[in-house]
Design a protein that fits this description.
By secondary structure, the chain is of the alpha+beta class. About 40% of the residues lie in helices and about 20% in strands. The strands form four sheets. Strands 3, 6, 7, 8, 10, 11 and 14 form a seven-stranded mixed sheet that branches. Strands 9-13-12 form a three-stranded antiparallel sheet. A two-stranded antiparallel sheet has the order 1-2. The longest helix is centred in the first third of the chain and has 19 residues. The model has no long low-confidence stretch (mean pLDDT about 85).
Length: about 425
């Protein structure tokens, strides 16, 4: 950039442009470049609080300049996020990308009910909302087909999020989100899970899954929901879809859905008998294959996977306690008998060792995971007993040692 162009930009932005400080002869200095950057940022900030902007390009630049705002990638996403803010069910846009005025009315009822006293067209209501939210509107936000453009919907959304105190740009990527979730869990998860105490915690906190041999997996799911909903609550209405068929994934942030899995990577006998822990090399069961496929196709899917050391009940005392404790609270054994005729030792305790966040962005990534060998689709065992046995969908298995390319965050306990 030469001095003349730099001076013209500075003048247009209202910046002070000084010789020797900002430019020397025909060369713009580093200080001069920073002067222009500060002036451009200040100009965009002013525009973000103005009543109107002249053209769609400026509107797009203003959206990027609003602190903490992540523009919606499409009109449906913008409408979905407005509905979430308004606390109503999400509305599907019509043919040709036509948004409905009711979405804007819901938003107004939540944040600016006074503007509903006057009659409004869809466009005038969007403009009135922008005025209430102290963000600009542009005549260019109305398309030739009479709909509101993506930039126009984003401007209304930006103002509503600003009013609600929401920082939607916090997790622009799955890696950012995965790191935040892993850090929260690493700080809050107990570092030793006693079986009896964990089962009692689940029962006392209203879990329906407190009675069963695989308590460590249920306990991790309940802890994930409790910890993450305290830090990053699932939207009470709207938000990412979590239920597909009979499968309900464990947690949804405002932007993504995640499932929790506890994977026994090491085991040892309990009571201790002097033998060293042994490595468990079998893959871990994930979820119903159809549900995973649909979720990944619609919005992506993440997994929060904790590897741990299981202390196994070799003398059967813990199994007897599970049955006695269940009977004391009205539970009966399932009657399930393994195909081998032998029952596996129950986990007396569980120690978390490593925690990973894994993200599958789309079907291309899902199929790549299958090709890479870390995902495998297999017939799902039927864990039911007697007359309750029934055909079930296939399920995916995972091998963490091959999932490095999909891992977005990691923590190891000392």
């Amino acid at each position: 950039m030469n001095t003349i162009i730099g001076g013209q930009i500075a003048h247009a932005l209202g910046a002070d442009w000084r010789e020797q400080r900002d430019f020397v002869q025909y060369q713009v200095t580093l200080t001069g470049m920073n002067t222009l950057l500060r002036a451009a940022a200040a100009n965009l900030s002013r525009l973000s609080h103005s009543r109107t902007v002249a053209d769609a390009k400026t509107l797009e630049q203003v959206l990027l300049a609003i602190p903490g705002f992540r523009p919606a990638r499409g009109k449906q996403e913008a409408v979905d996020r407005m509905s979430d803010l308004a606390g109503v069910e999400r509305d599907k846009i019509g043919p040709g990308g036509k948004e409905h005025i009711e979405t804007l009315r819901h938003l107004a009822r939540r944040f600016a009910p006074q503007i509903l006293d006057a009659r409004h067209t869809k466009h005038s209501l969007a403009e009135a909302l922008c005025d209430q939210f102290d963000v600009p509107w542009s005549p260019k936000a109305v398309s030739t087909m009479g709909t509101i453009t993506k930039q126009g919907l984003n401007m209304v959304l930006a103002g509503a999020e600003r009013r609600a105190g929401i920082n939607s740009a916090a997790w622009a990527t799955a890696a950012d989100e995965g790191a935040a979730l892993v850090n929260a869990l690493a700080r809050e998860l107990p570092t030793y899970w006693d079986g009896k105490a964990s089962i009692e915690w689940m029962r006392e906190n209203g879990s329906t899954k407190w009675y069963g041999s695989e308590w460590a997996g249920w306990y991790f799911e309940e802890q994930v929901r409790a910890i993450l909903n305290e830090r990053y609550p699932t939207p009470p209405v709207g938000g990412p879809r979590v239920k597909y068929g009979s499968t309900t994934f464990d947690y949804a942030s405002p932007t993504r859905v995640w499932d929790a899995k506890a994977h026994t990577a090491w085991s040892r006998n309990h009571p201790p008998d002097g033998t060293r822990p042994s490595r468990v090399t079998s893959p871990f069961w994930m979820n119903d294959a159809r549900a995973m496929h649909e979720c990944v196709d619609e919005q992506g899917l993440g997994f929060l996977v904790v590897d741990g050391l299981a202390s196994l009940d070799v003398d059967g005392q813990f199994r007897a306690w599970i049955e006695a404790n269940g009977a004391a609270h009205g539970k009966k054994p399932s009657g399930y008998v393994a195909s081998t005729g032998k029952s596996r030792p129950r986990k007396v305790a569980w120690t978390p060792l490593e925690l990973r966040a894994i993200w599958i962005e789309n079907l291309v990534e899902l199929n790549a995971g299958i090709a890479a060998g870390w995902l495998r689709r297999k017939p799902q065992p039927d864990w039911s007993a007697g007359d309750q046995r029934r055909p079930r969908n296939d399920k995916y298995q995972g091998k963490l040692e091959k999932a490095g390319g999909w891992q977005v965050a990691y923590h190891a306990w000392p």
